[in-house]
Amino acid sequence: MSPSYWCQLALLGGEAADEGVLIEVEGERIASVEVDVAAPSEATRLDGLTIPGLANAHSHAFQRALRGRTHRGRGDFWAWREAMYELASRLDPDSYLALARATYGEMALAGITCVGEFHYLHHTPDGTPYADPNAMGHSLMQAAREAGIRITLIDACYLHGGIGEKLAGAQLRFGDGDAEAWAERVMELTGNPGARIGAAIHSIRAVDPESAATVAGWAGAREAPLHAHVSEQPAENEASRRAYGATPTAVLADAGALDERFTGIHGTHLTDPDVRLLGRARTTCCVCPTTERDLADGIATAERFRAAGIELALGSDSHAVIDLFEETRAVELDERLASGERGHIAASELLGAATESGHACLGWPEAGRIEPGAIADLVTMGIDTPRLAGADRRDAADAVVFGATAADVRSVIVSGREVVRDGAHVVLDVPAELASAIEAVWS
Q1: The CA-based dihedral angle spanning residues 372, 374, 376, 377, taken in that order and rounded to the nearest 10 degrees
Q2: Is the pLDDT of residue 284 over 70?
């Protein structure tokens, strides 16, 4: 018998939640959705508020081990990067599997059903390929499978330590020598029902324009997602203008990278012409507010993106915290601080960025909605918690976006399979695995 779920409340779109929602599932897909239904005896009850699964569109799983270790004292992104390089030099396929599995387990507990892993830890620390050149990528896909979430492995081309500079130190393990060698290696990666393959131009700092065109061509030929870090720092823009006479966005446009499959990460220092370029190409921008404020990157003005026609997605990036609800509300709240005005983007649109738009930019356009034919990802929040108690179903989207946290997640179903029950992972002891994996890396 196909499973069925009865939701006390469910957000099916808009600001208000529907009551008594019966969801029938066949395989990994939603077969039917009915509203205002009494709970059938054979259905699994999902008491609370059910929303579509969340998509974490930008992750560097290994950086979870930096939490609590890089916050003391003054500095900026470039100082933080040195600590990140130290961590990157310590991992191998086995230790990365353990750390990523625990990190993805934490994501599952937070209601994340799909992750976009922006992957550039490819080779041994001195740059020599492993016997399996994609060993690290295979560890990430295995980690997601064991944690019970889907993954898009966004394999990043990373060739230079800065514009015109050779890779050095910890960066050596990131590089394939040239874009053709990168493409040859990535050709050996294959997806599966829970994993898809995408491509990334790490940044204009790390990939020259000719090589960026090669990566864009590889992704275009396969209709694969293409991501890139774009204008995260003012220094990045300045270096691009000195070297190429154009901003990173304009360089990417000339390389043929910008279309509806392209996602720019961060965009905290995009110029107005950059925003127009990205909007005309119908791209997505993935903002990561908790990382951007942790690294003092700046505030991405998402209302500008929306006005230009750019889709919005969200990521937890360096995992200063793993809480997509915090990322979601920060888009609006940070812009309020910057502008002195409230009410830029409605809660339902923000939630759409965390669900439907996030999945779409990862190459899963059939996910992120509760409707027939969609992948059966259901996240149920407790409405008896201190944060959601007293919420009115008519304002459910606002209650979730502006009040909920990852701690409110009670049940998570991914592709029709139960992954979290009563706030606990059904397979992993996530806190114990995180503690063990992080200790092993640093020791």
Answers
A1: -130
A2: yes
